[in-house]
Structures
1.
Amino acid sequence: MTRRTFLRTGAGLAFAAGLPGWLSGCASGRVAGSPPWAELAASLQGTLLLPQSPDFRQVAAPWALQYASRLPQAIAMCASEADVRNSVLWSQAYEVPLVARSGGHSYAGYSTTPGLMINVSQMHAVEIDPATGVARLGGGARNRNVYAACRPYGRAVTHGRCKEVGVAGLVLGGGIGFNMRAHGLTCDGLKETRIVLADGRALNCSERENSDLFWACRGAGGGNFGINTGFTFQTFEVGNYTVFELAWNDRLAEVFDALQTMALSAPDTLGMKLSVVARAGAPGLTLSILGQLAGTREQLASLLAPVHAVQRPSKQTVESMAYWDAQEFLSEEGYPEYSHERSRFVPDSLSPAAIATILEELRAWPGTNVAATWKFFLMGGAIDRLAPTQTAFVHRRNTMISSIELEWNAQDPQARVERNQLWLSRFHDRMERYTSSFCYQNFIDPAQRDYLHAYYGENLARLREIKRSYDPKNVFRYPQSIPV
Ligand SMILES: Cc1cc2nc3c(=O)[nH]c(=O)nc-3n(C[C@H](O)[C@H](O)[C@H](O)COP(=O)(O)OP(=O)(O)OC[C@H]3O[C@@H](n4cnc5c(N)ncnc54)[C@H](O)[C@@H]3O)c2cc1C
């Protein structure tokens, strides 16, 4: 796509009338040394935000605040697939780097760019067909939109617990959530997606059409092949659930071990996260579990009885309620913060030496103004009904996804943050021998060595072939993207 062909498509011609004041300085065409933003603005049904726009900084900000200074030159707030297409073609015509943005929750700030941010967050409609339970989502829908649309029908998909996270990023990289053991990963419920490619074509991808790209859209991660403008999911019915949050402060190694034993033999109806946290200003470590059981309080009590026999929790909340009320108990908003998360898949159980290492490292945490957490999310169940090569999400057949999260704030001096980063690296490296060299592509980690192996394993070669056929010029790229 050249500048001339962009103009010939007509997409670039219809500007001039009714441009907002902050854009009028460049409304008469290309400003020397800067790309013709007015031409792009005129081609959009949505709006083009430039740095002078009052909303610009807020929309540009990523979830991970350490990357907030990477500002784009402009943000195309797309209202339609045509807007996405025009933005993709315009960027190439004027050699402006592009990036897709949905929820902005990339852990590594990979939906920031020094060029054009193609923001689909206004394409967030979710419609459910009550007869079939099929849900159609715009490419910019967030978990919060899924919650609101599914609740009236008593149906769900496997969603995340942070309401602000974008479904695009979530599903394209796999998607873990408390429903995954009973119903599979988010990407396992995906039936179809539409994607705008670098050459401007918009393709339907499903098992029947462009099935290789559909395979890749279930686990490769966002930002690799094009910009997804819509997702179709098969939802499932949800009834009453028992939700729980329990915490312990004593005998942590024994409690950890007992919880792990319970979790590894639990029914698929259990969704659970275990965390051990060192918090600024708190005297010791706290171990907690959070999750849901598609079952009764009595069934949960029987699962937890062996753990209670080891040590009674210092705090506990257990309640039974309808599914979507339960999600209000479990969910978080997902507001921006300073954070670095490093993951490792666990193929088996964690040995006593692994548990001792986790506790020892957290006790040696250098400390920030916020917290450091080691956690695992229980896997297995429906995730394992597919083979690792059946979708691009290669990490099936694991018992857990573990991660270490380091959080700090703007008042932490740089030297302290650096000391903490060294600690995080050492801890992450030490855990490899107890876990695996595989990491979750949705917990994308700019510090990960050999990341293509870590995210894709044996699926990498096929992903590269697909990349070569759908994005041969490598238009969609970021520091850890799939190479051509
Ligand atoms: C607070 C928090 C909670 C989380 N909880 C969970 C969880 O419960 N389960 C889980 O699996 N993961 C979770 N994650 C990880 C999350 O899935 C990833 O960070 C995901 O990539 C975020 O998607 P996004 O659309 O919000 O982010 P963005 O930053 O907008 O996008 C992420 C990547 O996808 C690309 N992209 C964005 N939109 C599109 C599109 N429409 N088409 C193609 N590419 C696109 C971007 O360019 C970028 O490379 C969480 C992350 C955070 C920060």
Note: The first strand starts at residue 47 and ends at 49.
2.
Amino acid sequence: MRLVDGGAFSSYAHKEIGPGDELEVMTPAGRFTLPPAPGRYAAIVGGSGITPVLSIVSTLLAREPRASFCLIRSDRTAASTMFLEEVADLKDRYPDRLQLVTVLSREEQQAGLPSGRLDRERLTALLPALLPVERVDGWFLCGPYGLVGGAERALRGLGVERSRVHQEIFHVDAGAETVAAAPAPAHSTVTARLDGRGGSWPVEDGESLLDTVLRNRPDAPYACKGGVCGTCRAFLVSGEVRMDRNFALETEETDAGYVLACQSHPVTERVELDFDR
Ligand code: FES
């Protein structure tokens, strides 16, 4: 794990966790996946965003001979690139079905693309030159917010349907795109159901619904508290909330009534959440 400046968990992991320690981990949410199927797929990843994509590509190419993949990587320097050898091995194993494009933002490359950040403008020009954008069955975007947001806007501009784009953001700088605050009621109460047990608690001034629940139920699920991972997803049974930001839930999920508890603040005096749905 990389140490993120000011990162709560990465600082803890680097200082406190050592060989022999046991960690209890949650099962994967299973929302950023690609069940092997014939077709043409592509990924745009930045830094450690390669981690989930590497297993997606390896599994796909091993299990489905009629699938191909274009992997576009953005890293600062060759020395900081993760899984360099593993990706090179994959390219050797599937030279015809894996297209690999590496862009280094802070280092000149001997061959290939000029250095610089992969932003929306650059991707808009680059993608149609690399592959038939309209014939890609699934896009996988993974990395920091700036890269994923730029890639998503580039794809939208190129006419790619939203349903073909899957994304996972692992780091958002504070202050990125928050929603304007709606007036909050003077007093509000959240009722939450979690692991079959319910409870009702008053929401304290300014805190998120997740924090209210956590004060009373420390087993409430969360990981990033930044609107990125989706671990705190809950079904809004009744009442209304406003979310500061949402980089985790798809439109279908918010339309179906799901919210991120870590980003939710009550707009009505009573709000009911169900973490079990
Ligand atoms: S805890 Fe990660 S989105 Fe809420």
Note: The CA atoms of residues 192 and 198 lie 5 Å apart.
3.
Amino acid sequence: MQIKYSDILISNVLIPLYDKNQRYHVRIKNGKIFSVTSVDQNLAAQESTAYDMRIECMNNSLELWPTYVENHAHLALPTNFDNFLEPMEIVALQYLYFGITQVMDLFGYPSISKEWDAMMENSHGIAPTIMHCGYALTAPTLNDKVGHGAEFPLPVYVVNNEADILSALEKNVMAGAQFIKVMYTAGIEKPGDLPRFSLLQKEIFSKILMFAKQYDLECIVDCNTLEEVKFAVRCGYRYFAHPIRDVILTEEDWNDLKNCYFVTTLQGLKGMVMTGNEMEQACDTFHFHQTQLPGQEKHFATVTMPYGIQYGMQNSRLHALNCMRENSIAALLRNQCVLGSDAGNTLSYHGLGFYEELLYFLQQKSVTRHNLLIAATQKIPGIFEKKLTNAFSLDNEANINLIESNELLPTNIIKGDIILTPHLIANKIETLRHSL
Ligand SMILES: [Zn+2]
């Protein structure tokens, strides 16, 4: 089975980011974008030298887009009910199946880094590129409340003072972190709710950004409320791991949040308000069966009521999900939104969670497919540029998806000199499940 090609010609492809009507010939040599010419220019010249793979788009409506970027995942959290972490070989393929070749891990990666590295060595490049933050920084326990993040089965760095900040940053840098995640939230989901977590001292929170910059690291902040976000913005933070979830923002609010970016993460909350039946339905889909762990269905039967009801938070959670949806759509239309699914949280499956986000936004009247694909292929500015390049320009590594013009799932996923199809990846997942 050949999937690596040193010289690829994609002919007559649409590139909506350039021009919606024009067709192009794209040449990829040794995994890099070598040339892009419009069909008006001479194809004969393109064809005159040998290529070893040609994708001909003349008779269909294939579009070329930069790869999808999952901007909020947790590779080290179990997506399933039985707390079973899928092998990284399979997790990597779950992302690729949906056309995601770049993944941002929003805390926890060091716990699975050895397994991930081993997988990278064996996979011959058939895995997404990741960027990670190490472990998140959070507030100390106060009045019996822990800092957000401490409720997950992964370490967090608790910071009380400047020495703690420096120590946490150093440990993350040693672990290879390329940005920093800071928890600044009391966990309030609805105005009037009681705080669930302790909040970082304002003074400490404001210093983390300054210290991180000394290490040349950007920060992403986890906030729930508008008030928390506004304070973070006053401290100089711009990038937020979630949309605001306590209120729907007004025009005036948005004016105060210029240059801020929010990750959608709807899928991470959705599982909390679903009944067992709804879970069962959501997972009885073709793409679920192609990519995810079989046998989850028996766990759904045990969910007699949504977690939101079990924990007395159903109203808050429904309110929060609604605000997150509305604020994400508004951010998307303002180009202040990137897609991310909070994969690793229960029911936000690796790869599939991102695809579910795409499906949700496509159903919204105000969102066009073009707007949506721009958000889905976008990274939080500044942070990713150091390592992840999916900009479609000459001499960059080819990280592209070929997608039918009325679809969201790519037919061809190109990562450097590798061409994959969802069908090929599903077969590999099945083979791996039998062999591992
Ligand atoms: Zn998360």
Note: The first strand starts at residue 7 and ends at 15.
4.
Amino acid sequence: MKRILIILTIFIIIFYSIISYCYHNFQFWTHLKTEQFETLREYNGKNIIAFRGRQILVHKSVIPRLIEIDNYAKNNNLILTINQSFRFNGQNISRAIVKPAKFSNHLAGFAIDFNIEDENRKYFSNDLKRNNRNKLPINVKKFLNKIRKNKKLRWGGDFNKEDPIHIDTPINFSKKKWLIYNQLCDNEFSKGIPKWKVWEK
Ligand SMILES: [Zn+2]
């Protein structure tokens, strides 16, 4: 009886550890198969990682921008954690820092939200705000300046209503284009099949 209890306890500990590890580092059940997608693409970067191992999905034309951002992060020894990339219509946003815009570039796959990590610490929205920017280490400042100098990118820290964890390509300057991309992405996403369902096409 005692032996059974020990085995059961070990089993429960192992099971709990696996669940806990997956929840915090590798939420594989949120990953969709993207092979059949025509508009949305998955990004797997080196210095860009997804929050809790979720999937980074963006419009395919944004992939080159992510590669650039990834390189800026790498050159400054930073890791970016992406909290949000493409967002489907009606998706609830937990812990939203800025009230989501109706014509948000996230809804068309043209935006990411991030936190920055260097070897010493993590930098969140408050740390990146105008009033605190002088206190940032040089490599974080350099990284942000690279984003600002890239003509195809906007950094939310420069917005009137600042949103310093946001980077986008402003497809929403044209509502017509935004609507097309939003619908294409949303359609694809809603028909998406989770990767773990390997037996479905
Ligand atoms: Zn954003």
Note: The pocket of zinc ion is lined by residues 106, 111, 113, 166 (CB under 6 Å).
